[in-house]
UniProtKB/TrEMBL annotation:
The keyword Chaperone does not apply. This is protein-tyrosine-phosphatase. Its EC number is 3.1.3.48. Keywords: Hydrolase, Protein phosphatase. It catalyses: O-phospho-L-tyrosyl-[protein] + H2O = L-tyrosyl-[protein] + phosphate. Residues 23-287 form the Tyrosine-protein phosphatase domain. PROSITE patterns: TYR_PHOSPHATASE_2, TYR_PHOSPHATASE_PTP. InterPro entries: Prot-tyrosine_phosphatase-like, Protein-Tyr_Phosphatase, PTP_cat, Tyr_Pase_cat, Tyr_Pase_dom. It comes from Magallana gigas. Residues 204-278 form the Tyrosine specific protein phosphatases domain. GO terms for molecular function: protein tyrosine phosphatase activity. Pfam families: Y_phosphatase (PF00102).
Amino acid sequence: GSDLKEKYHTLTMRNPKTKHSFLRDQFKSLQLFTRKPTKKQCSVSHLPMNYSKNRFPDVVPPNDYRPILKTPGGFERTDYINAVFLDSHELNSHFIVTQSPLHTTVIDFWKLVYDHKVQTIVMMEDFQSEDDTTAEYWPEDKIKKFEPFFVDNTNIWQQENVTIRHFKLHNMLRVKSTPREVRQFQFNAWSENDFVPKSKTMFLDLIDLVRSWQRQSNENTAPIVVHCKDGATHSGLFCAVWTICEAMQMDHDVDVYHNVKHMKKRRPQIVDTLDQYRFCYKVLWDYMNLRMPGGTLTNMMNHTKQDRLYNVGSLSLASYTSHLEYM
């Protein structure tokens, strides 16, 4: 509503005390006042048998929020994977953010998916980088064995910025059990070296695709696995944007600062730049105006001709988001 518009407009203004925008000051306090997990709180990740499972030794999960692996086997045969549960607005532990699998942790990755009844994988990288530590954990066609699992790639769809693959996951330790249906969404519109994706619209489209699959599979409550190179930079932004848009949809109000802070307490590297924090607000603005029933532009859609809608609506949106560029 108009009060939200006012709130976000205020953030673009310069704070006379600091000579920076209020948004920049808000981000700075987010960095300063978010308590990071201590080494002791992350002790399991530093155990000798687990240490080599971390791509980056400083990006590790707190013991209290890490998903436990239950299926036997895998590298070093421990219950550890570098992953952490995050809450959405609606559900506790709605996301499991994790690093993209190392060559030694592919089986652990599938154990994570199987043990936590995951039906949705969101892959926030395009595999175009020169990094050879990242393993392709699925078969491009037919079936591939990842002891004790078989993964069957049954379908693939290519959309403009998202590759969608459908897998059947068989557990050989439970021969009589029904194979699990798992769908992977690979987002291709975000290069590894950029802090933010090139398009807010594409980002919201990805969230819509994932939501509709979850509704279709009747698994709104199962965790979504979201992964990227460090399990934070790209994955965390996806979870943050999902959560603040969900809060706006449900409550018609949202506290971006505290939603992000809640996630950073478990994974401090999430939303770790001003660009990413600004992106959260910019996407929220688009979501309010373009996607929500009763949003500024959806209201205008009901009352005016479509050509007028885009002339008027995009002008106000453009003028607002240009303010945001300088925050």
